[in-house]
Amino acid sequence: MGTRPDEVAPVRDRRPDDTDYHEAGHAVAAQLLKVPIGEVNAIPDVSDNRAAGVKWQGTSLGEVVHLSYGGDLILRRVQVLFAGPLAEAMFTGADFESVWMNATTSSDRADIREYARLIARVHRLTDDQIFEVVAAQRRAAHEVISANRDLVEAVARALAAERVLSSNRVAELVADTHNTESSR
Question: Which domain holds residue 92?
Fold first, then answer.
């Protein structure tokens, strides 16, 4: 039997690891890009073969297509998906390509492929055009993470200690960190 996220006690003295930074990257990008999430956790749930991760609000692709026919929400979600492995690489010193090919990012890669298909279908793009659109989202995600390292660090520390964060807790951490930075 595996451990369920709601059964794990907080570990106050734990330092952030690669999973914490990865999930913090997703969470911070989602908050800043206004992509609704339900929660973020850094606990793999082996009992039902779920990985750690961000739980989307409005998870069905049909809802995403309906809500964002113009593509904006889809593009922001692609940025959020890239933000996790980008943050992991940035904070752990690992090479992005190595992180990207790691098994833990396989769901990120699969989701990006699915969103790329949707973007191509909605906007009737060629393969070269969709490649450039996706590459632009990776660059945009890198800018978000690079410009907000302090936020990623704060959320990663909270994930290391608390293991599961609600979207409200992520918003609180982002606001608190912004307030602390602006008062300096």
Answer: 11-169
